[in-house]
Design a protein that fits this description.
The complex is a heterodimer. Chain A is an alpha+beta fold. Chain A is about 40% helix and about 15% strand. Chain A is built from 19 helices and eleven strands. Chain A has a six-stranded mixed sheet, with helices on both faces. In chain A, strands 7-11-8-10-9 form a five-stranded mixed sheet, with helices on both faces. By secondary structure, chain B is of the alpha+beta class. In chain B, the strands form two sheets. In chain B, strands 1-2-6-3-5-4 form a six-stranded mixed sheet, with helices on both faces. A six-stranded mixed sheet of chain B has the order 9-10-8-11-7-12. The chains are: A alpha+beta, B alpha+beta. Chains A and B meet through helix 1, helix 2, helix 3, strand 4 and strand 5 of A and helix 1, helix 3, helix 5, helix 11 and strand 10 of B.
Chain lengths: ~475, ~475
């Protein structure tokens, strides 16, 4: 219960900033070092988790297939290697806006006809945009796959959007921004934190875009974005489900392989300097009733430093691998300073990754006290480093999750799509469990240093109007951790 | 709580469809159905090959054997002991029990219990709805013995240590306080209070700050003694286990529970629809948008017109972009990010709801256009083409519910919760095929009665901007009290 709640908060937080790097997953292969870890060590077996097939079509479009014959259905996803981080400065929101327009008709289909056709065939479709990619998916009976592929290929090159639909969709997106961010104080704080964490960089700009910039986008700007980026050489087809490679390959070549490739496009590149000093944003708002502490930290990603990312994933699991692990035990169970605490890190990001920490202070506990206690958890990890046994337990939990990940139609497709669009390759996923098992325990112990560099982090204090109630109402400070009462 | 990669992956996926970027589609995946390819010994093809079994000690269990992965999923519920039975002064009791049951049992204290789950990658959780109290267990088969042991301990020997109760109580209180900044949660709270009135469904299933603070370990123990009894138990299992081992495991886990309890609560009375329309506004100052919920009567799941209701709701707003509300309100007029209609079936009540959000200036227009769509269904028969495409959707999308061990188990539990037979889904396509446009129009005339709409809005819109002539609804009453929270 407790932790579910946290996981949901963290994920809501991450989604509210509209970045997308949540699946705590897979990675890595170039690990040649053997596990010289603990004594009584089991031998890491280098075997694939998913046995995915992959091939490249004649126009450069990549295809990944994860066979799954449990039910006569498939998940069809097309991932474009373009996202909000590829927008020109001042045009924030264009990648996401464009994602909406992909449902607004082609030379061969009326606006809305794509989704209506999918529905009538018993399928479900949707799409999503992140900093690094944009993806479109349909889950449907396997027999209808050729029809879906034809429609998807059609809108990759033949989009034709009536201008009045462009304007009404702009209103829809402003409604979406209002629903997601403008009415949600945590999401508003997250926008400030991201902008401070990644100054001068697209990762500091919300994926959905700043309100005024969305409102100012023009039809031509959006269509230019389409012409530049929507092409088979920027696309990856990921299929999970009841079809074999022998069946899929000719179909994919016929339908997608014949589409014309586009010349190489370039994204604007900006530096994201780390602003020196400790950065804290205090956000007081009348909508807030429960104070919350959020910390975001810039971290290596699998793409920028694979070994570091593997060690960080394990370190994050040691800190928060459930309520029996360090963070929850220290802050919630033992010190009784917080009613909830969570930490998450995922290495899936083309540039840097972002770790996030979210702690809910117990009633009567000032937010500064939980920060001090959290920093003590980090110092404790550094100076009373996790034992080989504790590290192995985290590795085991992570390796077991790979089996659960196969118990799904869509999860493997998400994992591969996300990996291939953030600079990783198929083997990074297939041998991720091996890479986790063979990551050295010393590297796991040292990974804590990334959390201890305060210049890489930004703190957020979400507070009710008038400030921290634990201070303004001023109950006597408890002399021991048990002392505070809750209204 | 086992916060696993799987869990985060699943949350991610559902977050993507529910609140992810992209179109918010209705996360409430529509029900399932057409024939799947599971071969069964019997001649006739089954949608899910459910076996209905009985253990030696007489416990019923629904089972789907699936050897495709070394995974086992077990779910169960105790009927009619959910939050509706908490009572006004103990609101949140069933919820607090569900949070604390896995916080230590038998020889395991809280940390030891959670560590045993995590070390063996076992996912075990409990939850309480209005009607029922449920449990969900998922394990790799190689850890199943440990999983069964922990579940048995949680059900039969929960410790309810003070430390754990206090921790869970406080987590719930901070959840409530966090929810106070969520307009959707506020709208739902006001809706339940205004709609259900004196019925127990009006109470706050998650508890109030004062009732949670007053609950004691004795409350939790007596809840368990009177509620977790075998006469209320329904179990479903999917996965890689053979029948004999499963039956033994079920007796091992559940066999020692009492058959029944003399203190058992009697079933809540059926809720009857209010006689008059009602429109309520809960103002949230400064909010740029407002959350809208409309409720209309529906039919019970055992009513022969249930399939007609299902199709009508789907056509109106149940299939995302294929549906009328989405086409009219979002795509054509840009008044919302998402608008959906869906039915809900509880033990004591059923209804159709429509939900959406809109920036304050466009709330009235959204309401009046929505009312127009309700009238259109009653005034004009749907075309054969539109009917067929929605029927095809409801039938054709059913296999999408069979993609994981968990989902198959959940589907069985839904049938059990509705008292439906295990072969119900085998006949669903045929029933849907029999529904005509005339059936839908007749039902629309009966249930889509704009004089019976209960409307609740929470947000920044002002009551002055919602006069009846602009909304098509009864005049709005402003409510500022938020009951059953403090």
């Amino acid at each position: 219960m407790k932790k579910t709640h946290i996981a949901i908060i963290l994920i809501a937080v991450i989604f509210s900033i509209l970045s997308f790097a949540v699946i705590d997953t897979f990675r890595s292969s170039d690990k040649t070092q053997t596990h010289k870890n603990a004594a009584a060590e089991k031998v890491a077996v280098k075997e694939k988790s998913f046995n995915a097939e992959s091939f490249v079509l004649s126009n450069g479009m990549h295809v990944v297939l994860i066979e799954n014959h449990r039910a006569p259905i498939v998940s069809h996803m097309v991932w474009y290697n373009v996202g909000a981080a590829d927008e020109d400065w001042g045009n924030s929101g264009i990648a996401h806006f464009f994602e909406h327009l992909m449902f607004k008709g082609t030379q061969n289909m009326a606006p809305g006809e794509y989704s209506k056709t999918v529905r009538a065939l018993g399928g479900e479709d949707n799409a999503f945009t992140s900093q690094d990619f944009t993806a479109y998916y349909v889950n449907i009976a396997r027999d209808h796959l050729p029809k879906i592929m034809q429609m998807e290929a059609d809108r990759m090159i033949n989009l034709n959007i009536p201008e009045d639909h462009f304007e009404s969709e702009k209103n829809v997106i402003l409604e979406e921004r209002a629903q997601r961010t403008d009415t949600n104080p945590t999401a508003r704080l997250m926008e400030s934190l991201r902008a401070t964490l990644y100054p001068n960089h697209a990762y500091g700009v919300p994926v959905i875009g700043w309100r005024d910039e969305i409102a100012a986008l023009t039809y031509n700007e959006v269509m230019d974005f389409y012409k530049k980026w929507y092409a088979p050489n920027y696309a990856t087809l990921v299929i999970s489900g009841a079809i074999t490679r022998a069946e899929l390959e000719p179909l994919a070549e016929e339908i997608y392989g014949s589409l014309p490739a586009q010349p190489t496009a370039y994204s604007p590149e900006y530096d994201a300097p780390i602003l020196p000093g400790q950065k804290t944003i205090r956000y007081e708002d009348a909508q807030v009733k429960q104070p919350q502490f959020i910390r975001l930290c810039r971290m290596p990603s699998y793409n920028t430093d694979k070994d570091a990312a593997l060690a960080l994933e394990i370190a994050a699991n040691i800190l928060d691998g459930g309520s029996a692990t360090r963070l929850y035990q220290a802050l919630v169970s033992e010190a009784r300073l917080a009613s909830n605490a969570g930490l998450s890190y995922s290495g899936f990001s083309e540039k840097e990754s972002t770790a996030s920490i979210s702690i809910t202070p117990r009633a009567g506990i000032p937010i500064e006290n939980v920060i001090t206690a959290f920093d003590a958890v980090l110092m404790d990890y550094k100076y009373k480093a996790p034992s080989d046994e504790e590290i192995q337990e985290a590795k085991d939990r992570m390796v077991n999750e790979a089996i659960y990940a196969r118990d799904s139609l869509q999860t493997p497709a998400y994992i591969f799509g996300q990996a291939l669009n953030t600079g990783l390759n198929i083997d990074d996923i297939e041998y991720w469990t091996y890479d986790i098992e063979t990551t050295s325990n010393d590297a796991v112990r040292q990974a804590i240093d990334y959390f201890l560099d305060s210049a890489r982090c930004v703190d957020g204090h979400l507070l009710p109007e008038g400030g921290d109630p634990a201070k303004t109402i001023a109950p006597p400070m408890p002399t021991d951790a048990e002392g505070a009462d809750h209204e | 709580m086992n916060k696993s990669l799987l869990r985060s992956a699943i949350l991610t996926v559902s977050a993507l469809s529910a609140l992810g970027l992209g179109f918010a589609r209705d996360a409430a995946a529509r029900s399932p159905l057409p024939e799947a390819e599971h071969a069964t010994p019997a001649a006739q093809k089954r949608f899910i090959p459910i076996e209905t079994l009985k253990t030696k000690s007489g416990i019923d269990v629904w089972f789907v054997e699936d050897q495709s992965l070394p995974v086992l999923s077990m779910q169960f519920f105790f009927e009619n002991v959910g939050a509706a039975y908490d009572g006004a002064d103990k609101q949140g009791l069933a919820r607090l029990v569900s949070n604390t049951l896995d916080e230590g049992a038998g020889a395991y204290d809280s940390k030891a219990f959670q560590k045993a789950l995590a070390d063996n990658s076992i996912s075990l959780s409990f939850s309480s709805g209005r009607d029922d109290f449920s449990g969900q267990l998922k394990t790799l088969t190689r850890y199943q013995d440990k999983a069964f042991e922990l579940l048995k301990a949680a059900l039969n020997e929960p410790r309810f240590d003070d430390e754990a109760i206090t921790r869970m109580r406080e987590a719930n209180i901070s959840r409530i306080k966090s929810s106070l900044s969520n307009p959707g949660w506020l709208a739902a709270r006001i809706f339940n209070d205004q709609f259900y009135g004196a019925h127990p469904y009006a109470l706050n299933s998650g508890g109030t700050i004062s009732t949670l603070n007053a609950l004691t370990a004795d409350d939790l123990r007596s809840y368990v003694a009177r509620s977790l009894t075998r006469d209320r138990l329904h179990i479903a299992v999917t996965g890689a286990i053979n029948k004999d081992d499963l039956l033994k495991a079920i007796d091992y886990i559940f066999g020692a529970l009492p058959e029944k309890s003399a203190d058992a609560p009697s079933k809540v009375e059926n809720f009857s629809w209010p006689n008059d329309a009602k429109s309520i506004l809960f103002p949230i100052d400064g909010l740029p948008q407002s959350q809208i919920t409309l409720a209309l009567p529906s039919v019970r799941i055992d009513d022969p017109r249930y399939y007609t209701m299902k199709l009508m709701t789907t056509i109106l707003g149940g299939s995302g972009f294929g549906s009328r509300l989405m086409a009219e309100i979002r795509e054509k007029h840009g008044l919302t990010y998402g608008i959906y209609s869906y039915t809900s079936e509880s033990e004591a009540a059923e209804m159709m709801q429509i939900s959406a959000s809109s920036q304050n200036a466009t709330v009235a227009e959204l309401l009046s256009r929505t009312i127009d769509e309700l009238k259109r269904l009653a005034d004009t028969p749907v075309s054969e083409e539109e009917l067929q495409s929605h029927r095809d959707y409801l039938i054709g999308s059913m296999p999408l519910t069979l993609t994981s061990t968990d989902k198959i188990t959940s589907l069985m539990q839904q049938l059990q919760m509705q008292n439906l037979p295990s072969d119900y889904l085998d006949h669903r396509a045929a029933h849907l095929s029999e529904v005509s446009a005339e059936d839908i129009q007749n039902l629309a005339r009966e249930v889509l009665d704009t004089n019976k709409i209960i409307a609740v809005i929470a947000g920044g819109v002002s009551a002055d901007d919602l006069p009846s002539e602009r909304t098509g609804l009864s005049p709005f009453t402003v409510v500022t009290d938020l009951p059953n929270v403090e």
